[in-house]
Design goal:
There is one protein chain. α2 packs across α3 and α8 runs parallel beside α13. The strands form 2 sheets. A 5-stranded antiparallel sheet has the order 4-6-7-3-5. It has a two-stranded antiparallel sheet with strand order 1-2. It has 16 helices and 7 strands. It starts with 7 loop residues before the first helix and ends with a helix. The protein is globular. By secondary structure, it is an alpha+beta fold. The structure holds calcium ion (CA).
């Protein structure tokens, strides 16, 4: 039920004819959204209303957001999704095909090429699955019809229109995941605007079709979030006695040093400097919990995706690809 019947509704009727299912230009939150685009970003109101009217509500998107793998699977199952032999071999091939770019980008941004390759491998299987939803459908469906995160996704919708203007694209043409993530590295619109890079200098940061731009963009994201080249990501931990549960599984920036963790009965399984900060993490294996220490670079991976399972999968895939390259 619409609380207000505002003038835009009249416009909508002539703009798109009859769109029976959920015309987002008539949504009760639409007016405030359009006003913001006009006042803050100088968009044309009719243009924004027209885009909203042409967006489609997709039940599949609402279904998908309710069941991400990292929320429902224990580590020993989650890892199988990303650490299969195909993904490792495809990673070796992707590295070989893009070696020149990876070397240059890695030097320029100070990010290990294996991590860049692994991110693209986990996100889209090296560009094979970049998402076939229209980003506008994803962001309107979630921004207007998914109350738990509507504010976040409406903000991304705003960013999408800004991105489209900057990249001289039609926002109705852009494709991505059910959550509006785009291209090889699956950047949401705000990340795209802030971190995507035009590596080949043709004037467009194209992470949909240009692997060079995509590789530089992932590296730039990591650099901007504090990746430290050559520093550890994870090491296994040995835990003596009962661990204080409040110490475990924080994805905040690590603050406890190895020296402090030692006092709590936590010991790195391989040599690490005593003043290095780490987070203690547990991962559920079939035969019980496995403890790990995650360092600053672990934290940086969680800036890409907050799941600690995701961070471990990316790192283990990067290690597996490095190993397979030697073979
Ligand atoms: Ca480019």
């Amino acid at each position: 039920m619409m609380k207000k019947f505002w003038s835009g509704a009249i416009l909508a009727t002539y703009m798109v004819g009859s769109q029976a299912n959920a015309d987002y230009s008539r949504h009760e939150e639409a007016k405030a959204f359009v006003d913001r685009m006009v006042k803050q970003h100088k968009f044309d109101a009719k243009m924004v209303e027209s885009w909203l009217a042409q967006a489609e509500k997709k039940q599949a998107i609402l279904d998908a957001i309710s069941r991400p793998a990292e929320k429902t699977k224990p580590w020993f199952e989650y890892r199988k999704i990303f650490l299969d032999n195909d993904r490792i071999q495809q990673g070796v091939a992707f590295w070989k095909e893009n070696e020149k770019t990876l070397i240059t980008v890695s030097e320029r941004y100070g990010v290990d090429p294996a991590i860049i390759v692994a991110i693209i491998g986990v996100e889209t299987r090296y560009g094979r699955h970049m998402g076939s939803y229209r980003v506008i459908d994803a962001l309107t469906t979630l921004g207007f019809d998914y109350p738990p995160r509507s504010e976040f996704f409406r903000k991304q919708l705003e960013e999408l229109f800004l991105l489209a203007r900057e990249q001289k694209q039609n926002p109705l043409d852009l494709k991505g995941s059910y959550a509006g993530a785009m291209g090889y590295g699956q950047f949401i619109p705000s990340s795209y605007r802030h971190y995507a890079r035009d590596f080949d200098g043709d004037g467009v940061a194209d992470i949909w079709t240009n692997k060079n731009d995509a590789i530089a963009s992932v590296a730039n994201y990591f650099k901007a979030h504090g990746w430290q080249s050559g520093q550890p990501v994870f090491v296994r931990a040995k835990v003596k006695g009962k661990v204080d549960e409040s110490l475990v599984n924080s994805t905040a920036r690590p603050t406890m040093t190895i020296a402090e963790l030692r006092k709590k009965g936590v010991e790195p399984a391989s040599s690490v400097a005593a003043d290095q900060s780490a987070s203690l993490l547990s991962y559920v294996q079939e035969d019980g919990d496995e403890y790990w220490l995650g360092f600053n670079n672990f934290y940086v991976i969680t800036r890409y995706n907050r799941s600690q399972l995701y961070a471990m999968a990316v790192w283990q895939l990067s290690e597996a690809i490095k190993e397979a390259r030697k073979a």
